[in-house]
Write a structure and sequence with these properties.
389 residues, alpha/beta, TIM Barrel, eight-stranded mixed beta sheet, eight-stranded parallel beta sheet, 24 strands, 30% strand
Length: 389
């Protein structure tokens, strides 16, 4: 395929006059636009062509949840998020018993191993993000307290049998055994993210020294500055903001984090230090008033966001990646090419997806076509169209 007459979005800007050649699921070349036309040439009529979005934090959509551990549920989740331009995602678990997490990991591994070149939209699954159970009860948010636990050697060994599937683990650095756990995860090239945590900045620094390089849904369910006696100390938030090597997840849905806080994060981290994530749960894609379950917790969609049914806490978002991109461009007033980097190259790099999130020869042919109004027109994963308006 040759994608022509498009405005290509790169990390350093937007360029006209180029075309993208894709073959066998890979980008073969990016070259000056030619006059050649024929079968396989796709005229994009001046719309934007960006790398496909990469979402590191997706629990569910349209009433389906990762915790169902079924290919049918996974397919529905991928299909919905493809409509928002996501061509790679990490299916994200809730805090649950270890044997339930193993069931989910096994189901995801089966899907990845059995998928065929044209098995859309399952090809979007890049792995699993384990959010818990090694988190803080004080900062659990919508996670179920009864399943929160400290890492035990036998449970970690069971999870690490799926090291090729697990791409990220969210944990609280202050819990007993966290640093040894980080060492074991990093030995298997698994990204470690601090989150659902009441850590001091000292705890966060030690976790960083062991290999933690990310913060989960920054500003949400994490410690911040507090008094220790007569002194003021930082929390995980301040550590993440101050450490250049920490990559910060951001749920830019207009509900989880205010515009002022999003601007503050951008000033602290710059465009290269932010990874947009939806943290979408099963309520995403459902109308207001819809009820759903987050691994046994009753939830509701209300005013475009997901809440526990008693309204005591947020329960993930109801958004797609394109919704976050629009928020960052329109409300935070950031350049489109920088925002696209937060939704593509940054998250891909954060979890080692080397062939994702970039427009370059040799990268996967994952694309999202955007209108000038930032509506998703088409999405391609490994050269196959997985969504069109």
């Amino acid at each position: 395929m040759i994608f022509t007459n498009a405005r290509l979005i790169f990390p350093d800007g937007i360029r006209d006059g180029l075309e993208v050649v894709a073959e066998e699921g890979k980008i073969r070349a990016i070259r000056e636009k030619t006059l050649a036309r024929g079968k396989g040439t796709i005229d994009l009529y001046g719309n934007y062509l960006a790398p496909g979005f990469v979402d590191l934090h997706v629990h569910g959509a349209v009433g389906r949840d990762t915790m169902e551990a079924s290919a049918e549920a996974f397919g529905s989740i991928c299909d919905f998020h493809a409509s928002g331009g996501t061509t790679s995602l990490l299916l994200t678990t809730a805090t649950a018993p270890i044997d339930k997490l193993v069931e989910v990991l096994s189901a995801v591994r089966d899907c990845i191993q059995r998928r065929a070149p044209r098995s859309r939209p399952i090809n979007a699954i890049a792995g699993v993000h384990l959010e818990g159970p090694f988190i803080s009860k004080a900062k659990r948010g919508a996670q179920r307290e009864e399943f929160i636990c400290e890492p035990a050697p036998e449970s970690i060994a069971g999870l690490l049998e799926f090291a090729g599937v697990i791409k990220r683990v969210t944990l609280a650095p202050e819990i007993r055994g966290a640093f040894d756990l980080i060492d074991r995860l990093r030995a298997h090239s698994i990204s470690v993210s601090g989150g659902h945590s009441d850590a001091s900045d000292e705890d966060a620094r030690v976790a960083f020294d062991h290999g933690m390089r990310s913060a989960t849904h920054t500003f949400n369910c994490m410690s911040s500055a507090r008094r220790r006696g007569v002194y003021r100390i930082g929390g995980l938030l301040e550590f993440a903001l101050s450490e250049p090597q920490i990559s910060c997840e951001l749920i830019a849905d207009g509900h989880h984090v205010s515009t002022t806080l999003m601007k503050m994060l951008y000033r602290a981290k710059g465009a290269s230090g932010i990874c947009l994530v939806t943290d979408a749960t099963a309520g995403a894609g459902l109308p207001d008033g819809s009820q759903f379950s987050l691994f046994g917790s009753d939830c509701i969609v209300e005013d475009g966001v997901c809440l526990l049914a008693d309204r005591s806490a947020l329960a993930g978002s109801a958004s797609r990646m394109i919704d976050l991109v629009r928020t960052m461009v329109r409300d935070v007033d950031l350049p489109l090419h920088e925002v696209v980097m937060m939704a593509t190259g940054n998250p891909a790099q954060a979890v080692g997806l080397e062939t994702k999130g970039r427009l370059a020869a040799g990268a996967d042919a994952d694309f999202v076509i955007l209108s000038p109004e930032l509506e998703v027109m088409r999405a391609f994963c490994i050269g196959e169209e997985i969504w069109s308006e």
